[in-house]
Protein 1
Amino acid sequence: MQVIEIKGGRGPATALRLAERPIPTPGPGEVLLRVQAAGVNRPDLLQREGLYPPPPGAPDILGLEVAGEVAVPGDGVTGWQVGDRVCALLGGGGYAEYAVVDARCLLPVPDGLELVTAAALPEALFTVWANVFEAGRLAAGETLLVHGATSGIGVTAIQMAKAAGARVIATSRGLAKTAAALALGADVSLDATEGGFDAQLDAAGSADVILDMVGAAYAERNQRVLAPGGRWVVIATQAGRAATIDLMQLMLKRQVLTGSTLRSRAADEKARLTAEVRARAWAWVVSGQVRPPIEATYPLEQAQDAHIRLEAGAHVGKMVLTL
């Protein structure tokens, strides 16, 4: 099968190479998928640069989410048949014609949903559910503040929060992105590059939950606008990892600061999360309420171009590789 390997450096033009590898064999409880589309995510860029190694037992091939068809169910797999259209969260291995998946981490692709769109769902959907709805406990009528609102995770967070009946304040960089966030359903959309950003953020009202992909550079403003009893969830540190917070304010306002990663979670935890998403959030996908916009698609052999475009930061939504 054809795969993308990391060879020859850290930059996308030199590091990513098309190669041939044997088709893997699914073990007990696993499924071999014929991959037709694979999502491209920021952790892929970090792994390419040597900064985010795959967890033990995961393939060294990039790719954390795919969509395609069941090719071979492994021993003990029930509920899935050859030819079923599915999407899945992976520990790695998505940039390839075939991928082995824990059958417990499969989700059925709804009729009429293109596999390109389905491939853009698992990583963002699972991340948002785990962080906004489980750790953040976002409820109907509350307010979610999401930074990086036009990223793959950001656009999904907007749509999922609105589907759950929450109010959304979105921040992003530039007028085109703020307009895109409004079009996706945000109630308030702020341009972080504008003068007076802090005053506008304060005027937008307090947030019950903050989904933070920025990190240290936004720590002071996040704590300032977080409501009493609010939950601040950190999932990336693109603008610094060492922050100063006011512990007295944390105590007086009963604020909760937490964070997580998804890829490093144990297989049983990912299976639990899949079951929760399928039971409680997948209906939003089936109904069309959650549909991450696709910025661009690239054939597998042009993975380096997808990385270059993602690194540029001008995108809205997801980049997807097609096979």
Note: Residues 25 and 110 are 27 Å apart (CA to CA).
Protein 2
Amino acid sequence: MLVYPSGVNVPSSALRFLSARLRRRRRELGTRWRRLSPGRQALLTLAHLRNGHPYAQLGAGFGIGTTTAHRYVAEAVELLAALAPTLAEAARTASTKTFVLLDGTLLPIDRIAADRPFYSGKRKKHGMNVQVLADPSGRLLWASPALPGAVHDVRAAREHGITAALTDAGITCWADKGYRGAGGTVRVPHWGRWENLSTGQKAVNRSHAKIRALVERAVATLKSWRLLRKLRCSTTRITSLVQAVLTLHLASSGR
């Protein structure tokens, strides 16, 4: 396999953050020697998450075996996932904002047609449903554990306890029609065919759409990590990957 230099479009603060955590982890384990230093292991992990490079390609570039590359990345991902904020912590952060934005996104996965639980009828593809909370500027605050793609957004919000957490904290939340019936402090647009809505309802829906559209920035932030654009791993690992990306994003943005 040919090897060539390449770049990873990730802030250096993310590399320093992960390197420090890996270094601390090795001290706790009493690790004496590894093929890669904490810094190189961190870079390996960032390359995998940001660029979506497979383990064989990464192993060749870093001079290690495919199995070793997989083990190093898995260790770093689990370490990062454990540092991700909980919904309660995200709600405390959100309480300092005027309101929050809520939306669900589908992370595409490699599945066959028979895997119905993972098929999203709305988006016509297999994937995992992840709920995203953003601040009024569209900055990513929190991402939920992944559920099968067939799970509707309002059901996912209830299962994760998002509606209850925001309502208990008194936080107004703007969401789309997919959250109709969520209740609490979740605001959704008026339901019905456009021609059947009153002039006032149409004006409210247009204003609602302008506010809610900013959540797409948070979704785009999540999917800027290319690994999440097409996942080919076990569905049981996807939550850890999402939480790891969330941790890296918050750490590199100083939040």
Note: Residues 12-29 form the longest helix (18 residues).
